[in-house]
Amino acid sequence: MSKTKIVVIHLKEIIYTALFAGLGILLIILLVIMFMNKKEDTTATMSGTQYTPGVYNSTLVLNDTALNLEVVLDKDHINSVRIVNIDDSITTMYPLVEPSLNDISEQLVDGVDINSIEISEDSKYTQILLLDAIKAALAKATPDLKDN
Fold first, then answer.
1. Residue 68: CA count within 13 A, CB half-sphere
2. What is the mean pLDDT of the chain?
3. What is the pTM of this model?
4. For residue 80, how many other CB atoms are within 10 A of its CB?
5. Above pLDDT 70, what percent of the chain?
6. Do the Cβ atoms of 71 and 138 come closer than 8 Å?
7. 3-state secondary structure the chain
């Protein structure tokens, strides 16, 4: 009443199946290891050095007068931010420039990230202008990760 079925498995098929399964597992392991190391290398490079130490400048133009903004950096910290050649006419015409820069500089020296700087409503536009100039100077100091 019930028929017996006989299945014939050749040794050659078992070897091929095991070989391809082993290669598939090896390929998956290699891909996982390869992509995991990429992420770790990038974070290690970024955490090792945030800036190239030195003094970096950017130019800020107010009323046809170019102001040089100077940013002094360590490898992972902003030491100071100041305007090098501020003229009396600029301080008279734009009285919020120096207090705004002092406020930003204090926050940066205390370790606040440049994107997390608190901007006061009294001198919002002046501080945004100064922050853009500081970001331009920091862009010169940021190491390029493509070279590593």
1. 7
2. 83
3. 0.62
4. 12
5. 87
6. yes
7. CCCCCCCCCCHHHHHHHHHHHHHHHHHHHHHHHHHHHHHHHHHHHHHHCCCCCEEEEEEEEECCEEEEEEEEECCCCEEEEEECCCCHHHHHHCCCHHHHHHHHHHHHHCCCCHHHCCCCCCCHHHHHHHHHHHHHHHHHHCCCCCCC
